[in-house]
């Protein structure tokens, strides 16, 4: 459709702490969109395209325990830039709805707040990674990490980020709460109920924002 090609598609991101149920919620949302016949692409960070997935493996590899915080933040930004060019921008330009599992808010919460690199540093290095591609809506799945970890039955021992311990993940959580206060595009969704309840809240939110 010609008219559709002229309008940039909507860009939605999902954020949350480890084990908050993000993967499940993205699956339930996909099933809903499929059933409704709504076109979208679902992608993820870090990764989502060939080169970005290679960067993902380096970042998350449990053997890279000596990686500096700055290197980590720069690699996330590098993967973001590549993924944006390979997948997100082409889809948005052809009018598609893009749903991305994590984006720059992850860097702000994990590297900026929890690693202590600060917001300025993260904004500076991501300036060149995200261009003007700010999400239209960010769904923050709000579940404190202590609850999330018990749901998930502990952390994955091969995943460098999951291995950071509860204190680190509590800092990430506080980082997210501060971001949600600061940016109106971030909508927190309380995830303390059942999967189905959370799914219904997400659908209602997307409808109320005119996304679907
Ligand atoms: P993943 O296995 O996809 O975790 P999840 O299912 O929780 O999304 O691994 C991504 C990890 O990378 C996760 O621990 C969050 C972290 N991360 C950052 O620290 N900074 C970032 O910018 C991004 C995108 C992710």
Description:
It contains nine helices and five strands, in the order H-E-H-E-H-H-E-H-H-E-H-H-E-H. The chain has helices at residues 2-6, 22-36, 50-60, 69-93, 104-114, 119-130, 145-152, 166-182, 195-208; strands at residues 11-16, 40-44, 97-101, 137-142, 186-190. Strands 2-3-1-4-5 form a five-stranded parallel beta sheet, sandwiched between helices. Helix 4 runs antiparallel to helix 5 (104-114) and helix 5 (104-114) packs across helix 8 (166-182). The longest helix has 25 residues, at 69-93. The protein starts with a helix and ends with a helix. The chain binds thymidine-5'-diphosphate. Thymidine-5'-diphosphate is lined by residues 18, 22-23, 45-46, 60, 76, 101-102, 106-107, 110-111, 161.
Task: Identify the notable features of this structure and list them briefly.
globular; alpha/beta; binds thymidine-5'-diphosphate; about 210 residues
Strand order of the largest sheet: 2-3-1-4-5
**Total strand segments:** 5
Number of helices: 9
- Helices and strands, in N-to-C order? HEHEHHEHHEHHEH
SSE order and pairing:
Elements: H1 2-6, E1 11-16, H2 22-36, E2 40-44, H3 50-60, H4 69-93, E3 97-101, H5 104-114, H6 119-130, E4 137-142, H7 145-152, H8 166-182, E5 186-190, H9 195-208
Parallel strand pairs: 1-3, 1-4, 2-3, 4-5
Helix pairs in contact: 2-9, 3-4, 4-5, 4-6, 5-6, 5-8
Bound molecules: thymidine-5'-diphosphate.
Residues 18, 22-23, 45-46, 60, 76, 101-102, 106-107, 110-111, 161 line the site of thymidine-5'-diphosphate.
Q: What is shown here, in short?
A:
The protein has helices at 2-6, 22-36, 50-60, 69-93, 104-114, 119-130, 145-152, 166-182, 195-208; strands spanning 11-16, 40-44, 97-101, 137-142, 186-190. With 212 residues, the protein is of the alpha/beta class. Strands 2-3-1-4-5 form a five-stranded parallel sheet, with helices on both faces.
């Amino acid at each position: 459709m010609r008219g559709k090609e002229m309008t940039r598609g909507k860009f939605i991101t999902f954020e949350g702490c480890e084990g908050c149920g993000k993967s499940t919620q993205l699956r339930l949302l996909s099933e809903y969109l499929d059933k409704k016949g709504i076109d979208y692409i679902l992608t993820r960070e870090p990764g989502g395209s060939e080169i970005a997935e290679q960067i993902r493996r380096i970042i998350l590899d449990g053997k890279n325990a000596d990686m500096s915080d700055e290197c980590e933040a720069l690699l996330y930004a590098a993967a973001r830039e590549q993924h944006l060019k390979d997948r997100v921008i082409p889809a948005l330009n052809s009018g598609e709805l893009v749903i991305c599992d994590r984006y720059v808010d992850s860097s702000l919460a994990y590297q900026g707040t929890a690693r202590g690199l600060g917001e300025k540093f993260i904004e500076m290095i991501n300036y060149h990674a995200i261009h003007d591609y700010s999400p239209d809506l960010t769904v923050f799945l709000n579940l404190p990490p202590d609850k999330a970890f018990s749901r998930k039955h502990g952390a994955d021992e091969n995943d460098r980020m999951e291995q950071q311990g509860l204190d680190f993940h509590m800092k990430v959580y506080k980082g997210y709460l501060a971001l949600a206060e600061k940016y109106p595009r971030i909508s927190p969704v309380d995830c303390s109920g059942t999967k189905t309840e959370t799914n219904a809240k997400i659908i209602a939110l997307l409808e109320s924002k005119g996304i679907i």
